[in-house]
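Record non-specific serine/threonine protein kinase, 458 aa.
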Amino acid sequence: CTHALCSQDVVQPARCGGAGGTTPNGAGNDSILPASCSPAAEMLKNFYHTKRVGNYLIGRKLGEGSFAKVREGLHALTGEKVAVKVIDKRKAKKDSYVTKNLRREGHIQQMIRHPNITQLLDILETDNSYYLVMELCPGGNLMNRIYDKKRLEERETQKYIRQLVLAVEHLHRAGVVHRDLKIENLLLDEQDNIKLIDFGLSNCAGILGYSDPFSTQCGSPAYAAPELLARKKYGPKVDVWSIGVNMYAMLTGNLPFTVEPFSLRALHQKMVDKEMNPLPPSLSSAAICLLKKLLEPDPNKRPNIHQVMADSWLQLANKNTGAPYLNRIHIEEINHTVLLHMTEKMTYKHSEVLSAVLTNRACHTLAVYFLLNKKMKRLSKEYRVRASLLTLEMQFQEKKKGEKQKSEFYQTQWRKHVDKLTIPPKQTPIYLAVAKGPSKEKKHRTGEGPSQADWADL
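=>
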């Protein structure tokens, strides 16, 4: 990389799950995919970045947490943008919990595959940093949407909460509790759909062998369930409470429980006493009813995620939402054009690509497949849109041409009709033309009226 500010981190091949080491060659000139699927050198040159890690250029900062920063990245082989979560291992060492569970987020995300959860693509590790490469959500953070609009309309909130509920139900069915559901962790993709991120505090005790007994206080206090704040043992219903806080935030632009000055004890008491901040009077009774169910302080009375899905406000009771979303892609869903391109033009082994994709194993092979597949779909859609616009333009031009020809035809016919008309010369009216002699003039001068013979002539 020749960027003036660019340095290159040395990836440790044995510790990055297939992300490091040798990389197959890029696409040749006789690429199976369209030429536009190959990254242009100009694109790589113009992408601002400060370092290169493996096959990724690491660019501007998108977000920041206590131990990690999320940066925009560019995959050098496909030219597609990604999001890269960079965890500072030196800072993480100061917190024993983070150090102990540093790799848990990557493990959990490889277990999960859902349209409303960000897809983990690759994992890399250096001496000082741990990198999680994920799909980029160009729609940005939902928090910014709420800031811009002050609050969301009920119909828009309904869409987002519905998608969040589906994502959480998928996690709970896999034995995963997120524990940090908040507006900042909800991103929007190019189709304006929710994408859940940040599994750093997620727990799946008993599945991956972690010893956390579901009693650790974690997450943002404003979104945390009362039992979590009270340091009591808790279960998946803490996510249900957080969904309620998110729903309230979308509908009002505020949080349901606030105290001044801030105090965890006072905040917890407000939650227990159900002293919720006011709601807009325009909300439907169904929305208010669901909100109160979600923000029930007693976990025994609070509905579980499957009971939430049955609520009428979410309108999830149809055949399309009944079938669970599979965590593993089926072999029939494989894009064989991308598979052929990777095996024949990028020298990947057929079995290697299938293994990575079918097991959802985060590695460079999965990243290449996912990014090429996404790029191909986007370009196909753009092509269809351009073709549709071109068709409409041609139809408009044809219509315009037809109207012009029709107008010219009528004008020609009118001229022909006019040319055939014969306009007689100007003539004096008969009643003025008769009796022009002196006798008539004399009669008029003497005041005598016309004789009977004159009237007969007229």
